[in-house]
Design a protein that fits this description.
single chain, 258 residues, Rossmann fold, OB fold (Dihydrolipoamide Acetyltransferase, E2P), 2 domains, five-stranded antiparallel beta sheet, 7 helices, 28% strand, Two-component system response regulator, LytTR_DNA-bd_dom, DNA binding
């Protein structure tokens, strides 16, 4: 995977470079001290992975992510000495969050996670068809919230075939730009579709969107706290923009009163 480093600290860039050199799967093609330099490079080159510092002068890493507008944006691993920004980073679709000083074992774990998503994306891209890449036009779909009482399953285009998945089998859905991953107990189904499209085709009495990147099946909720909802064994982050709706309309209505 082609990767770049964006960090205003020279020693931090050098340390990250040494870590990258230890992994044959990574090829460093750029190192930048600010977001403006990185933005110019990204506009002209295809990058698979960006190691991005948060606390930088002029434009922070998080602000940079909010303004990034690329047809095929890189996966992002945040690097910082301030762990309190982790939740906001996940709301911006980052893959992982490394707290400085970064240990090699934690670095490898983060890169392995990116490699997993990278392979899923490449697999899905070979299966893209006009039907699979449908964006926000959901009115022609036979499955949706209006007729959830008639149908209890959906067909998902993946691996060059249409896979039948019952709503009750879906634990949660994760969005990755123009792809989604549907998680069940037994499989992960990757398809070329944005999360807004699949949200419109899932019954609203069973599914709710809890962040920019996640839709959950309410039947499989195990626990909820202020920042995460546990689905089976997965902790799914709750986004700020979705938090009030989820807590007020789903959780608080069923809280056992004293």
């Amino acid at each position: 995977m082609n990767c770049i480093i964006v960090d205003d600290e020279p020693l931090a860039r050098e340390g990250m470079k040494l870590n990258i050199q230890e992994l044959p799967s990574l090829q460093l093609i750029g190192s930048f001290e600010n977001a403006m330099q990185a933005n110019d490079f990204l506009s002209k080159n295809e990058v698979d992975l960006m190691f991005l510092d948060i606390q930088m002068p002029e434009v922070t890493g998080l602000d940079f992510l909010k303004t990034l507008n690329l047809k095929k944006p890189p996966f992002v691993i945040l690097t910082t000495a301030y762990p309190q920004f982790a939740l906001e980073g996940y709301a911006l679709d980052v893959i992982d969050y490394l707290v400085k000083p970064i240990s090699m074992d934690r670095f490898i774990k983060a890169v392995n996670k990116v490699d997993y998503y990278y392979k899923l994306r490449e697999q899905a891209s070979t299966d893209t068809t006009p039907a699979a890449a449908n964006t926000d036009k959901t009115s022609d779909s036979p499955v949706g919230s209006d007729n959830a009482d008639i149908e209890d399953y959906i067909f998902i285009r993946a691996d060059r075939k249409y896979m039948k998945v019952f709503f009750r089998e879906i634990n949660y859905v994760e969005g990755l730009k123009d792809y989604v991953i549907v998680y069940t107990d037994t499989q992960k189904i990757v398809t070329a579709m944005n999360i807004k499209t699949i949200e419109g085709q899932l019954p609203s009495n069973l599914f709710i969107r809890v962040s920019k990147s996640y839709i959950i099946n309410m039947q499989h909720i195990k626990a909820v706290d202020n920042n995460f909802v546990t689905i089976k064994e997965k902790e799914v982050p709750i986004g700020k923009a979705f938090k009030d709706n989820f807590l007020n309309n789903i959780v608080n209505k069923r809280v056992l009163k004293r």
